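Hi there. Long-time user, first ticket. I'm pasting a complex I've been working with (about 221 residues overall). I'd like to know whether the download I got is complete or cut off, because the file seemed smaller than I expected. Thanks.
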Amino acid sequence: MVKPRRSGLTPRLVLDTGALIGLERDDERAFEHIRMAAARGFLVVVPTSVVMEAIAAARSMARINQILKKIDLELPLGPPISRSVHALRKRAGTGSDADAIVVLEALAVPGSVILTDDRRDIDALLAATPAKGMVPVLLLSGKR
Amino acid sequence: MAVLKKSVAFDPAVGREALERAGERGFSRLVNDAVAQRLQALRIAELFVDFESRHGPVSEATRRQVADEWSSHVDRG
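Hi, the file is complete. Here it is re-exported in full:
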């Protein structure tokens, strides 16, 4: 499991693919969530694997590039995360590589939050970590 | 990794607290993180202005709902 980095780092709002697509499609709640995150001193971040999935699903490449340019915090996949993805997915028994990376990036900085459009896999992955219940998950649709 | 070095002046109390919290080795990281967050907040504000110019203001219901979710899910922790 990835060890949390030392505290004092800026907490993150980690976007999953659905959240990034929500921004690309002008979802009002997605915009309000990133506005809220920025106002509260969070860094809005997007793992590279999420960017790859979102580009494949995007309706407008120009729009997704515009969003990414403004966010400008794409997290490259490094050894601590890449070496933990398989084990986490195996323990959870579900989720994609991109979902597992979202969870691991949120766990890497204390106080971080995940924004997703579908919490089932994210919840299952979080439940398979020692930090179960410690990472808030916000939902694009607002449903519980 | 390439770095840009700049001499920065701090309010003494701010500089002391930053050093206490981050230590000498973590000082640059703390300052970089804080500046990165501020710059991103400005870019997100621009993105938001663009969104509202095309769709009108975010509804009061959405603002309230999202604020409630942050309060109940994030602040709670």
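A couple of notes from our side: The CA atoms of residues 42 and 88 of chain A lie 25 Å apart. Strands of chain A lie at 12-15, 43-47, 74-75, 113-116, 137-139.
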